[in-house]
């Protein structure tokens, strides 16, 4: 079966609408968090804000005076955790590093410190949460990588791949016809997970060979399948099934 160009466009518009509607709420949240954004600005230098001695980005505390430092590259979540900028990351390393840094910055450890140090540690800690939640999820991690390369996925982004559109349409039909049938939904979920795994490998390869154009196209696919996965899991949860 082949799709005419106009049908492809219709299908695509339908999926874009449903996906981007569901993303609007998270966009709104992003906007809100930007308003309360981190105010590390005046601390962004290569010297300790307190004693003026030279410091390195990886150091949370100044080697000379032990004052807590703001991260130098707060916009690059990979660097916040000392990771290479790759899609495929060591999740266990990320988790351990996150916990270790959070414990170093725990408010209890700053109760006797100056207001300035309490302020920096609190902001650092909230940056860690933001960076972790972004790197932890494959889709958000891929989008962050695109952002770091000056790219983002727009609402009008087209997928010029009829085979992919057919697959999405079929999966969507399967989802509709499964209704509240738990077994069918679980089977569909398994199939979708396999697709997500395959696409994730593709995304990783695109970024590794620095083919940002291809990466962008593949991340859009990742977005479709992630969205389908969320919908399936949403119905399963309503039916009392946990993932
Ligand atoms: Zn210092």
Structure report:
There is one protein chain. The chain is mostly helical and 243 residues long. The protein is built from 8 helices and no strands. The chain starts with a helix and ends in a 5-residue tail after the last helix. Residues 48, 50-51, 53, 62, 64-65, 67 line the site of zinc ion.
* Poorly predicted residue ranges: 19-38
Q: State the end-to-end distance.
A: 34 Å
Number of helices: 8
CATH architecture type of the largest domain: Orthogonal Bundle
Helix content: 55-70%
Based on the model shown, name its key terms.
243 residues; mainly alpha; Helix Hairpins; Monooxygenase; 2 domains; elongated; binds zinc ion
What is the fold's blueprint, element by element?
Blueprint: H1 5-35, H2 77-80, H3 91-104, H4 115-136, H5 138-148, H6 162-178, H7 182-208, H8 212-238
Helix pairs in contact: 3-4, 4-5, 5-8, 6-7, 6-8, 7-8
The structure holds zinc ion.
Summarize the structure.
By secondary structure, the protein is mainly alpha-helical. The protein has helices spanning 5-35, 77-80, 91-104, 115-136, 138-148, 162-178, 182-208, 212-238. The chain binds zinc ion.
């Amino acid at each position: 079966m082949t799709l005419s160009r106009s049908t492809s466009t219709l299908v695509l518009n339908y999926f874009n609408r449903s996906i981007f509607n569901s993303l609007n709420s998270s966009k709104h949240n992003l906007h809100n968090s930007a308003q309360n954004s981190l105010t590390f600005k005046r601390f962004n230098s290569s010297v300790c804000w307190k004693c003026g001695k030279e410091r390195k980005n990886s150091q949370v505390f100044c080697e000379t005076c032990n004052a807590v430092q703001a991260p130098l590259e707060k916009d690059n979540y990979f660097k916040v955790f000392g990771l290479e900028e790759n899609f495929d990351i060591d999740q266990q390393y990320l988790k351990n590093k996150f916990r270790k840094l959070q414990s170093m910055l725990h408010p209890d450890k700053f109760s006797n410190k100056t207001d300035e140090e309490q302020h920096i540690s609190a902001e650092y800690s909230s940056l860690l949460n933001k960076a972790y939640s972004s790197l932890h999820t494959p889709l958000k991690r891929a989008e962050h990588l695109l952002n770091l390369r000056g790219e983002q996925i727009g609402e009008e982004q087209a997928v010029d791949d009829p085979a992919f559109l057919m697959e999405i349409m079929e999966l969507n039909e399967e989802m509709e016809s499964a209704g509240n049938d738990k077994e069918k939904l679980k089977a569909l979920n398994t199939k979708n997970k396999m697709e997500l795994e395959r696409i994730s490998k593709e995304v990783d390869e695109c970024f590794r060979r620095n083919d940002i154009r291809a990466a962008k196209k593949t991340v859009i696919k990742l977005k479709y399948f992630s969205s389908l996965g969320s919908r399936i899991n949403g119905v399963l949860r309503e039916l009392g099934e946990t993932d």
